[in-house]
């Protein structure tokens, strides 16, 4: 709005000056200076806000890089900035740094960057990197234990079903390929505990070449999830988080358009289905 007023200030002045009743509203040079100072401070934030509010791509892992960019260049005070521009930049950066300074939030953003192959530990504080690795290892170990529990439960169910109908299984002849496949999988984890295997996989992932900044991390994981299966599960957990509340607010608006005064008796399940169709068709 401010930028549009600056672009059209000549036309605004011409229109307002033609009428005696509106001549007092003609922007003065002081008004223009204030608008230019506001525009200089806030205009860079517009594009970043729009980009972080998207919902069709990964956005949460961009918060750390964006905050780094704001602190180092975008919102850093310049020599030609006016006092008002400097005040706005300082106030905005103070608010953002305080907002994301919470320990839990900062850990979450570091984990999101870790599983993004474009950034990994690049924007994590050096003294905090080992701590983030430990958190990642612990979460992957929890996932590994959950998989083992599910496999045991399914095995018990299968054994129960098999005991109901005991029939001798036909012995199948193994192919040569099966021996090589078993051999290759066993050598990778031979002599390693589960924790050591998890730590090795994380180290190999961090040593792998970084993805291009313009690439989609989800496409990268589609190709590389077989090489890093445990880390890929961690990526699914974190990269689905939205950077802002804009997508959820859009869903709320869609729900408000569906559940109106004349349609107030809709059941919750029907509302869920209608909102889903409205957002995905």
UniProtKB/TrEMBL annotation:
GO MF term (any one): protein dimerization activity
Domain of life assignment: Eukaryota
Residues annotated as domain HAT C-terminal dimerisation: 201-281
Record-linked SUPFAM superfamilies: Ribonuclease H-like (SSF53098)
The protein's name: E3 SUMO-protein ligase ZBED1-like
Gene name per UniProt: LOC108263820
């Amino acid at each position: 709005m401010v930028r549009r007023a600056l672009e059209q200030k000549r036309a605004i002045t011409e229109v307002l000056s033609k009428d005696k009743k509106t001549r007092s509203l003609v922007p003065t040079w002081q008004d223009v200076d204030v608008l230019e100072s506001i525009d200089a401070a806030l205009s860079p934030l517009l594009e970043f806000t729009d980009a972080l509010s998207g919902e069709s791509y990964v956005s949460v892992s961009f918060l750390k890089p964006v905050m780094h960019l704001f602190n180092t260049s975008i919102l850093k005070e310049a020599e030609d900035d006016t006092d008002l521009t400097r005040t706005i930049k300082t106030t905005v950066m103070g608010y953002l740094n305080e907002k994301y300074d919470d320990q839990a939030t900062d850990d979450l953003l570091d984990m999101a960057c870790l599983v993004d192959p474009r950034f990994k530990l690049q924007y994590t504080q050096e003294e905090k990197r080992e701590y983030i690795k430990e958190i990642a290892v612990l979460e992957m170990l929890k996932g590994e234990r959950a998989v083992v529990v599910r496999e045991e439960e399914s095995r018990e169910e299968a054994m129960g079903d098999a005991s109901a109908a005991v029939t001798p299984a036909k012995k199948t002849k193994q192919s040569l390929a099966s021996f090589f496949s078993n051999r290759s999988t066993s050598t990778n984890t031979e002599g390693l505990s589960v924790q050591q295997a998890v730590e090795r996989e994380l180290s190999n992932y961090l040593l792998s070449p970084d993805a291009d900044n313009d690439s989609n991390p989800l496409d990268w994981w589609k190709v590389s999830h077989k090489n890093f299966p445990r880390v890929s599960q961690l990526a699914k957990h974190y990269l689905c988080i939205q950077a802002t509340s804009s997508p959820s607010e859009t869903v709320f608006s869609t729900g408000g358009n569906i559940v109106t005064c004349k349609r107030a008796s809709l059941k919750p399940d029907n509302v869920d289905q209608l909102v889903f169709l409205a957002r995905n068709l």
